Description:
Elements: E1 15-18, H1 24-35, E2 39-44, E3 59-64, H2 70-77, E4 85-88, H3 103-131, E5 135-140, H4 154-174, E6 179-186, E7 189-190, H5 192-199, H6 204-213, E8 221-222, H7 223-234, E9 245-248
Parallel strand pairs: 1-2, 1-4, 2-3, 4-5, 5-6, 6-9, 7-8
Amino acid sequence: MASSEPRPGRLEGKIALITGAGAGIGRASALLFAKEGAQVIATDMNPDLLADMKDLPGILRTEKLNVTNKEDIVNLAKTIDKIDVIFNCAGIVPGGSILEADDATWNLALDINARGAYWVCQALIPIVLKNKGTCSIVNMSSVASSLKGVENRFIYCVSKAALLAVTKSIAADFVGQGIRANNICPGTVDTPSWRGRVNSSPDPQKALADFIGRQKMGRVGTADEIAYLALYLASDEASYVTGQDFIIDGGWSM
């Protein structure tokens, strides 16, 4: 006879910080993590996107956080006594080849997509070590990185390749101290950011058809599908997994 006792969530008792939690994959992950028992610190540089989340069960608190501002990150870390999961999900997707690239966009993309994760981890890892605890770091990279060259994504690919290296270096340095670090590497995912890029193109219908046409499954991914991979990596089910790049792209990179 099945037990009537409620089953604990997969992140029960864990405190998780998520950057870029206001929309897309970050938001889907924040809601899923909370549903699975975590106490979530949901952060985003646009606090308006977090307004409807702050009173939801499992959302410990919402915070405005600009990951390009090291002082903001350090100050947030000072308010955290315990951390079990760090999900660096904030990111931007600039387009263009190397011929369209400019230094301002290069700097911004590297700051948000790579340096922000570096600063967040640098600020929070000492809390884990002080508590002699464990922690799963999940970083949102992309197949568009050193894993796959993608047309008109020069700066984006470089920034996400840098994040792959950030993750693997952290994994190597702290593998014996209870800290795991892994990359999620999606292909094209239906998010507000992606929809914005499609709709801002000269021919949105053609842009949408082109995106779908290159997908071997005939569709793009969903934010929830990526969130479930993040949940696995954040959970103790992945306790023997570190330093890895998890491709979730519908077979695009095959």
